[in-house]
Design goal:
With 258 residues, this protein is an alpha/beta fold. Helix content is 38%, strand content 14%. It is globular. The two termini are 31 Å apart.
Length: 258
Amino acid sequence: MTDHILVTGSAGRIGRAAVTALTAAGLPVVGFDLQPTPGLPPDRSVVGTLADADLIRRSVAGARCVIHLAATPDDARFPRGTPPDDGDNFLSELVPNNIVGSYHVMEAVRKERVPRVILASTGQVVDNYVRTGRVPVTADLLPEPRYLYACTKVFLEALGQVYARQHGMQVLAVRLGWCLRPGQEEEFRQTEVGPDVYLSPGDAGRFFVAAVTVPELPPYAVVYCTSRPVRRTLHDLSETKRLLGYEPQDTWTGTAPA
């Protein structure tokens, strides 16, 4: 595998959207996930975990770009319960996957001299701005994360910044909107902000094609990616448009695409 785009978390909701759009654009894609990636042949669908540093490095070798989406996708519960119902998934899942696993990916990128990496952060890293009405949130503001999952994404953004500065790669950290996973529909409908931070699979795919194909990026940048808001703009996409030419085309219509 050479000159490919490696997508970790390629069998997930956003991963499948990225793979579909990149493949449709004629770009060579390799997937990496816990299960085979839909739409990719077996020789381009790596099955493994973020704990397997050797497999990650072999998958990264020869890549022109790495899109790192793989992660434990949320807190075990939020708001947190009270004792004895106050457990969390920080040590069991968030640290191994989102912190140690991200380190393995960035080390593989460094050792294999991959020129560009796109890191999937989340709008949850600026959740408190939204909750307190300080919107739209721009990409230059300091994080005010929602909870422990978002804290791991703050780490991811800092990790990307350090590797970009120290090892000469282009790193783009994207604070993604809410691309619904199966079973999240009712939770989404009960939120006030959901329709305004919604990210459709189509817009996600268009974003990643733009991020991969734009000729030049700064050494490190943070951008937002959402679809068009229904009521008001919560995440400022002006830097996304300036750097990538990305503008969303979709809006939440009341039903998530299949």
